[in-house]
Amino acid sequence: MRVIALALGRSLTAAFHRTVGVPLKTSNKLAPFTFCTQTISEQSELGLKNSSSNGDEAPKMLSLRIERLPRGESIGYVFQKWMGEGFPVHRGDIFHAINRLRKLQLHKRALEVMEWVIREKPYRPKELDYSYLLEFTIKLHGISHGERLFTNTPVEFQNDLLYNNLVIACLDKGVVRLSLEYMKKMRELGHPISHLIFNRLIILHSSPRRRKMIPKILAQMRADKVSPHVSTFNILLKIEANDHNIEGLMKVFGDMKRANIEPNEVTYCILATAHAVARLYCGCETYVEAVEKSKTGNNWSTFDVLIILYGYMGKAKEIDRIWRIVQGLPHVRSKSFLLAIEAFGRIGQLNRAEELWEEIKSREVMKSTEHYNSIISVYGQNGFIDKVSGLFKEMKMFGCKPNAITYRHLTLGCLKAGLTKEALKTIEMGSKQFTSSKLKKSTPWLETTLSILEMFAENGDVETAENLFEELKQANYTRYTFVYNSLIKAYVRAKNRSYRGVIHVSANPTQPQGRVLREAQSIPVNPGQPRRLGEVQLETKQDVESIMLDVEKILQNSLSCSDCVICLDSFDVAKNDHDVDNGGVKVLEQCGHRFHSFCIQRWLTKHQTCPLCRTCIQSTI
Predict the structure, then answer these.
(1) Which range marks the domain in which residue 467 is found?
(2) Is pTM, for the whole model, over 0.85?
(3) 579 and 487: one domain?
(4) Which of 12, 171, 229, 541 could lock onto 200 through a cystine, CB 3.0 to 4.6 A?
């Protein structure tokens, strides 16, 4: 399944939740210090010689030779063979290899490379070489060994770069107190503190329980005269997006513009994705255009996000265009295939989704449950329960164990096919699976759960709908109006008076939309045969109509919104002379939402729905 935050290449949700205090001076007895942990042995040299004499031509890049070195073999012979062929070991070759190894999570191999460089000195080591050595030493051997390495580093290289890397490495281990001690020492020595340190601190304090510390971190950042960076604002934006807080998201974006920080493609990807998840498709479309203009080069992660966003907006031609670009890249990741399958499935093009599924099956062996979940989600959304069941059996045959999200997709497929009893059994089976809190807060899980809630609401199953609603509430997904609409529909279908409390709760911060309540008004009520499906029954038509009275008050409150969601300007700002003449605001009769007259007129020339709630607008303005 798609993972929007993953597509952006930001590990924002993996924040540490513990703070370990480590004294600045440790009394642990350590072995005699050495820069090297491994020497070349004749046995490893012979093994590498045999592995490279298989008839294949040796790679012409040093980094590739290091990556392909068999596990357990010494790094020294790679360099000996490289120099034996007449190639010098340049600083650029080493840095390129280190960056590749870091990306591949081959930290042990990266440490071996830097130990060889410090020991053999193919060139004169500088502060960046010692910085890399310090980074991977702490990753593999811990902070105490890294501190000892730091004290044994030549004094001329104990500068701001080495201190910054030491603090970042400590923060990566979750040791905040020690990091703050080193930051204090950096201030005393006059070393500048990098914005990357503050980025790590913000990530460490991104959990709801510790988020109150973020303003203090930003204040300290200003006190240390650290220039604001676009990556810092991107982290703050992602925190608000993960919390489904559109208001907070736009506040951070406003702060970013006031600080004269130029947004990049990552910024616009976060904004567009947040608006798409909130079903604010007008804002999403605006930011998608900004992504297209700001993207640099062939960044596969940006293309993945664009595929997701165009799937939300239902633009088949744009999905095709982006997918053709992705296919032209040197390597197409399986993740991109899965996102394209889901995007085509979302817009109803099952044939294209099935073609991509067959293509990825021909490319690689299906060994991951994630692969099957993508196509199962497509069939589940469209109610093809027979195909879902077939894939369910196939994945078991290939040794892929169904997980909690698999059962959710299967439940949705059963409901779409009208198999309510089977859906209840399936959702119960899925509840027995281990489900991490990270999965329960992911967008695929929340959207699938909401689709299931809507189906149970349509059937008037209040109990199941309430249970699913509570699950969405724990993930803050109930910040959105449409989630409350689904629960209200369940009460209305069941003729249960509990809707009143839900309506007033949803008034802040969201309001139910008129479409659900028009459905409530249209439900016939037979006073002679009341239907008891909840604690309180609705016995007369006046009881149902009272829903409308409650909602009219709430819709009046919704009209107090001070900004037009199309242009994001205040209603006090007139867009042209015509807006000045008629008050500047147009209220849509079908749903009650209001916009600048000029903005909504321009919008309706291209669309036939409300920008906020997607209600069909019959009349033209």
Answers:
(1) 371-561
(2) no
(3) no
(4) 171
